[in-house]
Design goal:
- With 341 residues, this protein is an alpha+beta fold.
- It has a domain of 185 residues.
- Helices cover 27% and strands 21% of the residues.
- It has 8 helices and 12 strands.
- Strands 1, 2, 3, 4, 5, 6 and 12 form a 7-stranded mixed sheet that branches.
- Helix 4 runs antiparallel to helix 6.
- The chain is globular.
């Protein structure tokens, strides 16, 4: 709103995106307006913050921590019990495998193939097909996995069948083409079936700082197989949230004093507090992720990888998060008489 001098331009144009790509942030926010409208800038800032928070909690959320819901790490697990009686329900256990910090190679094909077959067999024998699964992992792990998958997948177990002195010929250009197609198409073929791959930085990552089994430059994380829907298109993994639209009847009784509004079909609630010309904006969301068929979900833990260069992270708590600098600055008067000098 304030122009210091005639040289200030108001025709600024935003290049690129500010909000993330996960779809967890509130919608309907005009990013182009953040350059000239302070309120919109603050709303986008709040949206980015809640997206980062929900992204991490989707996987790592733990109800023992205040304001967190159980993430998929707690739900894709063994030791499932009845909610009312605490009786063990092993039929609902997920398939959890330990790769034990092994390097990427033919073994990862064996592990993923067995994981896929085990879960698909569960779906077949339980009458839950067709199931829509996705494979999820961190982007750094995905990049390293695609480097070895085409060759490893197309030659797995060859040495065991043909003998130690046998030779297997693969075409290098075909392997490179398959690798590039996987990366560009975000898919992976397992047991002759193609699965969509989700790359997500919200998944926990081990490194040499938090895990003594790794040295600098080494990382380890999990690969997940998550069922999105089962037979009839019934949702198996989805978000539930409190619909703030239902509070409208109560808010309307405040007789004009209300400063609340909701977005995204009631998923997000916004509140505004005013003191003279100052405003305080708050954003609230009460949601949780639900996995209705844990017996159709699985993961492979402690898969080790060593990228040449680690990617940037969207989580501010990560050592690979790159800060963008300051967003507010102190007043800087141009005339000495105004500054008291």
């Amino acid at each position: 709103m304030l122009r210091v001098n005639r040289g200030d331009f108001t025709d600024l144009v935003l290049r690129g995106r500010v909000l993330g790509l996960s779809g967890l942030e509130p919608s309907g926010l005009d990013e182009d307006k953040i350059l000239n409208i302070i309120t919109m800038s603050e709303m986008v800032t709040a949206a980015v913050g809640i997206e980062r928070l929900l992204n991490v909690q989707t996987w790592q959320g733990n109800p023992s921590v205040v304001n967190q819901f159980p993430g998929l790490d707690l739900q894709i697990a063994t030791g499932q019990v009845d909610a009312d009686t605490d009786t063990a329900c092993p039929a609902l256990d997920s398939d959890v495998k330990n790769y034990n910090y092994g390097t990427l190679g033919s073994n990862i094909v064996t592990y993923l193939s067995q994981l896929e077959w085990f879960l698909r067999y569960n779906a077949m024998t339980m009458g839950l097909e067709p199931v829509e699964w996705v494979i999820a992992m961190r982007p750094d792990l995905w990049f390293e996995l695609t480097s070895v998958w085409p060759c490893a997948y197309n030659t797995t177990r060859c040495e065991g069948v043909l003998g130690a002195n046998a030779e297997v010929t693969v075409m290098g250009n075909e392997m490179v083409a398959e690798r590039d197609a996987m990366r560009n198409g975000h898919y992976i073929d397992i047991n002759g079936r193609r699965y969509r791959v989700i790359e997500d930085t919200g998944i926990f990552e081990h490194n040499s700082t938090n895990n003594a089994n790794l040295i600098p430059g080494e990382f380890a994380s999990s690969i997940y197989m998550v069922p999105l829907t089962i037979t009839g298109g019934f949702p198996a993994t989805y978000f539930e949230y409190i619909d703030y639209r239902q509070a409208q009847a109560n808010i309307s009784l405040l007789r004009g004093l209300e400063e609340f509004f909701w977005t995204d079909s009631g998923k997000y609630s916004w509140a505004i507090e005013q003191t003279k010309w100052c405003f305080k904006l708050s954003l609230k969301n009460e949601s949780r992720i639900i996995l209705r068929a844990p017996q159709l979900a699985g993961r492979i833990d402690r898969v080790k990888y060593s990228p040449l260069q680690h990617l940037r992270d969207s989580d501010p708590a990560s050592s690979y998060f790159a800060d963008g600098g300051v967003s507010t600055r102190a007043a800087n008067p141009f005339y000495a008489v105004w500054s008291g000098r």
